[in-house]
Amino acid sequence: MRVLKKRIAAVICLIFIVCPMLCGCARIRELRRPLADHLENFETDFTMFGDVEKQLSKLYETSPQWQVFLDKITYENEFVFGSRVEIKYVDTDIAYNDVEIAAKDEEILPCLSRQMRKCLKSGAIVVTDSRNSEPDISGICDKLQQDEYLTMMGFYSMECSFHSNSVTEDLIIKYRCEYSQPTEQLLQYRREIGDAVTELSGSLWTKEDSDYDRVKAIHDHIIDHTQYNTGKADDMGDHTPYGVFVLGRSVCEGYTLAAKLLLDEAGIENLLVEGSGRGENHIWNMVKLDDKYYHLDVTWDDPVDERGGKEYKEYDYFLVSDEVMKKDHQWDGDDVPAAPENYE
Question: Where residue 295 falls among pLDDT bands split at 50, 70, 90?
Answer without folding.
Answer: very high
